[in-house]
Amino acid sequence: MRRRGAGVPRDAVHHPVFARFYAGFSVAADSGAGIAAHRDELLAGLSGRIIEIGAGNGLNFAHYPSAVSEVVAIEPERTLRALALQSAGRAGVPVDVVPGAAEALPVKSEAFDGAVCSLVLCSVRDLPRSLAELMRVLRPGGELRFFEHCQAQSKGLARLQRVVDRTVWPLLFGGCHTARDTVAEIGAAGFELGVYRRLRIPERGIQVPASPCVLGVARRPFTGDRPT
């Protein structure tokens, strides 16, 4: 069923210090910042075979609906992948945790009914290539569910995002780039954008470069050329 993507090593990402920080911070944020509710919204209504890229420590796994028959969870960072394996054992649906990178997914084309990316497109090294891979592995009409950091609509915060993205932020936070225009990139990759909404995390209080987020759905079109 799977094939190894060319040009990307088995452990293309290795951020052990950030991984340990993220493992604790993300669990606290699920309850404290309300992210768990966003995960429910992100995954509601999915069914069939799903691929999730950048699965991290597997916090999405507990939120997949029972209609999902299998989740193939791609995680390139070995520390987070080990934690995702533990989460997979507690999930209510079958989850297969696999090493790999978003830019070269180790799976066959048109093999999935849905794809999930959750707080990961900000950190992939090549965003257009990663989105092209998601297009490739989805069947025609398959859904892409996304919950991602995005470019701020406030000019002041957007300016701050651009500054920190060029300096310290990616170094401190596992390659994260907060100023990416995620929605525009998904559309440019050939996906049909569905309903999406912008939100802030946390909803109240001080906003940081990673606060602006977008949650929504897009689809691989039925028409047009098949991906190669």
UniProtKB/TrEMBL annotation:
Gene3D superfamilies: Vaccinia Virus protein VP39. Residues 52-145 form the Methyltransferase type domain. This is Class I SAM-dependent methyltransferase. Pfam families: Methyltransf_11. InterPro entries: Methyltransf_11 (IPR013216), SAM-dependent_MTases_sf (IPR029063), Thiol_S-MT (IPR052356). It comes from the Bacteria. Keywords: Methyltransferase, Transferase. The keyword NAD does not apply. GO terms for molecular function: S-adenosylmethionine-dependent methyltransferase activity. The keyword Methyltransferase applies.
